[in-house]
Design goal:
With about 240 residues, the protein is of the alpha+beta class. It has two helices and 13 strands, in the order H-H-E-E-E-E-E-E-E-E-E-E-E-E-E. A hairpin with a 5-residue loop joins strand 12 and strand 13. The radius of gyration is 35 Å and the shape is globular.
């Protein structure tokens, strides 16, 4: 009877071991199946991304490259360029641009350096700047409340709009950002002329823009690069003058 009991114990033990083995196998099988399904899902996601012209790898690098390539142009603000040549004038920001604006308010008399002018950007009417006449390097336009004007500015209007510097306020019109290199033909109190390498002559109206030290120290013969706003019949207005 004792032997029979031992036999039953052995059979029961073997049965338990068998069940445990089956459970372990089933559990392992489920994990392997889940892992295979996960790998299949990842492969399908990558395939879909590739089909759409996207990549699931190197996303951080792509974002970094994109931010670096926008350094030359503020893509969020079309009328801006970056002056890559940094020099003794201490450009805190490389960006210079054109703002199409309107005169929102005038507090004081026009021509008075203490008069406060408020301008709003027509591209983004929620943005407005109040500056004194002393803070504007050159005013070429007739400033009347409600009038449209064009402002040449220095600074990052997208990320640091509060720190903009106003180079000049110009009459309303269509302006385009350009650059030219060459040798000065003349340099007077109010205008200067530049001869380019292809023998074209461009005349500029002086507007107190930033320029490198000794960039135009002579009446003629200075080699410079000019970033400017071309206003057609309204004239060419420098944003930045770089010594070559």
């Amino acid at each position: 009877m004792k032997n029979n009991n031992n036999l039953f114990k052995k059979i029961g033990l073997l049965a338990c071991c068998g069940l445990m083995s089956l459970a372990v196998t089933a559990c392992g099988g489920n994990k392997a199946l889940a892992k295979a399904e996960e790998s299949e899902t990842e492969a399908e996601t990558e395939a879909e991304a590739e089909a759409e012209g996207l990549s699931t790898e190197g996303e951080d690098e792509t974002e970094l490259e994109s931010s670096e390539t926008t350094y030359a142009n503020l893509t969020d603000y079309d009328e801006s360029i970056a002056v890559m040549e940094q020099s003794s004038v201490g450009d805190e920001s490389p960006y210079y641009g054109i703002m199409y604006a309107s005169v929102l308010d005038i507090n004081g008399n026009q021509g008075d350096s203490n008069t406060v002018y408020t301008f709003k950007d027509k591209k983004d009417p929620e943005n407005a700047w109040s500056v004194t006449g002393l803070e504007i390097a050159d005013i070429e336009a007739d400033l009347v409340t409600g009038n449209d004007v064009v402002i040449l500015f220095h600074g990052d209007i997208v990320k640091d709009a509060e720190e903009l510097e106003f180079i000049a306020v110009l009459p309303d019109g269509n302006y385009s950002l350009k650059q030219a290199e060459g040798t000065t033909l003349s340099n007077t109190m109010s205008v200067f002329a530049l001869e380019t390498a292809d023998n074209n002559t461009i005349e500029f109206i002086k507007d107190n823009c930033k320029m490198d030290e000794d960039a135009m120290k002579s009446d003629s013969g200075d080699k410079i690069k000019v970033y400017y706003a071309d206003g057609g019949e309204l004239g060419n207005f420098p944003l930045r003058i770089v010594k070559q």
